[in-house]
Specification:
alpha+beta; single chain
Length: 151
Amino acid sequence: MITRIILELGPWSWWVLGLLLLAAELVLPGVFLVWIALAALVTGALSLFFWDAPFWGWQVQFVAFALLSVASVLIGRRFVSSSAGSDEPLLNRRGESLVGRTAVLEQPIAEGRGRVRLDDTTWSVEGPDLPVGTRVRIVASSGRHLKVEQI
């Protein structure tokens, strides 16, 4: 049955496959099937030119489709990954987003540890021993601890 449909549609069977894959991409989003659909459409375009050529059998068509699929997926991954930058790269890295800010010590830094309040949160800080009320600048973040220096 499938063989009969492919023979009746001829080179257009690749176009039908490409359109079905594009429709599947709409239902199952993930930006993967679109590259395979592109390979099917290109194979369909090649089939329009070479359909009557003796070398353009179904085996050659499947090899061309497979090679074009691999190539389009690799090129597509590179294209998508290079354009996927964020306008807020520190969005979920709160400690790193605090680097450069200044604060006043709420607890003295004794033996290398103290506390500051930034916005609505109290942070543990590391740095040289300093008394309460000293103005400090956050220079680094390591996990839950901020490293500070006196201004």
